[in-house]
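Onboarding guide, step 5: your first structure request.
Type a short instruction followed by the sequence, for example:

Predict the 3D structure of this protein.
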Amino acid sequence: MKLASIRIIAGDVQQMVAFYEMVTGVSAHWLAPVFAELIMPGAVIAIGSVETVPLWQENSAEPGANRTIFSEFQVADIDVEYARLKDRVPLVHELKTMPWGNRTFQFRDPEGNAVSLFMPATEEARRRFAGR
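The system replies with structure tokens like these:
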């Protein structure tokens, strides 16, 4: 089995795509006016408009209602990314090192979904991510 993508349902698909393009530096591929993908090494963020929900099942997803999933992006230099984004995104927490060795900060996207950028900060964390 292979994880193909994480899909976010957005009330304003244009705003969400522009936000993730700004955060990731990746240009979206629009496959339809209501659906785009940001393709990165090892991950794809798919963003669908609320109009796409009935294609699956009516009321099976609701924009801005999720508070359980964090999208995490590993970066080469967390300090550079923090400086670049801290005044452009609504921060949840500033830079800190987590007990498992990742240095991270967290913010929310326009729909309120949690997003974390991190880099392995301890030797153990760097070993864990080597080769991933």
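Each response can be followed by summary notes, for example: The first strand starts at residue 6 and ends at 10.
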